[in-house]
Amino acid sequence: MTNATGARGRIDKREAILTAAFAVFARLGYDLAGVQEIAAEAGVAKPTVYNHFQDKGTLFRAALAAAAEQVAAANLAIVEGITADGDPRRTLGRAARALARRCCDEQSRALRGLTHVQLGRFPELLTDVHAVTAGRLGDALADRLARLVVAGHLRHCDPAQAAEQFLALLTGPLERRSRLGTRPLPAAEVDEVADHAADTFLRAFAA
Fold first, then answer.
1. What is the pLDDT of residue 183?
2. What residues are paired with 206 via a beta bridge?
3. Which residue stretches of the chain have pLDDT < 50?
4. Which residues touch 65 (CB under 8 Å, ≥6 apart)?
5. 81: buried, middle or exposed (CB in 10 Å: 19+, 13-18, 0-12)?
6. Confidence at residue 2, expressed as pLDDT on a 0 to 100 scale
């Protein structure tokens, strides 16, 4: 029981450090963020951070990987709501709004910003983050769209390409209007983009 409690405590501290690290990196950037600030944010001693992560670079990569997993999980939960039951226009419209809002939230914008700004220092990050977020989302969405095709709601098509088109209709305008995530968008504008994306997609793919 003592060993289990100790292991749980170590996991909790690691998670607290990763959450704090992402917040500090997002607020200050990689160069200005210090391990001492991250330790203080996490409520642990500085040596505790080094007990889990050997240096700031390792911590940075781990913090972004953890954030990417959280973003991916939230997006996959949204896509799971796309079912072949009921009106596909309502189902896809609701999913489009939820995905657009998630794309524009603070965590997602910070993840994209940190990934691109530090691309020169950590070139593998873009591939890793993209595989977890966009890669999993595209695969899950393709699976759901395939079900809509089978149910007769969408015309016969390649579900993977259809998913790519759906996400492009969402993210393209959002990235342009937000200036690559550097400008927060009002919720009404985000919903407007999502509604237009869903409508355009259905005009092209509806059965």
1. 86
2. 154
3. 1
4. 128, 129, 132
5. exposed
6. 55
- Check for a shared fold between 1-53 and 56-205: no
pLDDT at residue number 1: 46
Where are the domains positioned within the chain?
1-53, 56-205
CATH superfamily of 1-53: Homeodomain-like (1.10.10.60)
What pLDDT score does 86 carry? Answer: 84
Q: Specify the CATH number of the domain 56-205.
A: 1.10.357.10
Are the C-beta atoms of 82 and 92 separated by less than 8 Å?
Answer: yes
Structure tokens at 180: 């690559």
Task: Assign residue 44 a region (left: φ > 0; alpha: ψ between -120 and 50; beta: otherwise).
Answer: beta
Q: Which residues, 6 or more positions from 145, have their beta carbon under 8 angstroms from its beta carbon? A: 82, 154, 157, 159, 162, 163, 166, 205
* Count of residues in the chain: 207
What pLDDT score does 5 carry? Answer: 58
Is this structure's pTM higher than 0.85? yes
For the segment 144-163, what is each residue's pLDDT rounded down to a tens digit? 999 999 999 999 999 999 99
Q: How far is CA 28 from CA 25, 47, 76, 191, in A?
A: 5, 21, 29, 30
